[in-house]
Amino acid sequence: VENLKEAVKTMDAISLHIPLNDETKNMINLDLLKTMKKNCIIINAARGGIINENDLEYFLKNKIIGGAALDVYEIEPPTNKNLIKLENLICTPHTGGNAYEAVFSMGLSALNHLVNYSKQN
Predict the structure, then answer these.
(1) Known catalytic residue at 94
(2) Is 113 a catalytic residue?
(3) Catalytic: 47?
(4) Terminus of the chain with fewer CB atoms < 10 Å: N or C?
(5) Structure pTM?
(6) Residue 2 pLDDT > 90, yes or no?
């Protein structure tokens, strides 16, 4: 965590693409947010729960960091209306996996499973 605190001091943008587990739960919290540059933006396209949303709300509301973008939320759909209404937050409805290529691959995988199943029966 200490290395992470040192690293975020120099970053203009942070984009999260990590799993949610015991080590990453609330990893982005009051303690880490206060080390970020004033113009820093943070993007979470990974998993809800990595960012402590209450801490993020405080930092965004008071313009202590530049902004944020969330595609994932601790509770989905998000229930914290005060957070999602902030002008320096961009919210998307958990669409990160909805790229054409991802949807095509999922469909192709489903078809392959059906073909393999039919060959076995």
Answers:
(1) yes
(2) no
(3) yes
(4) C
(5) 0.78
(6) no
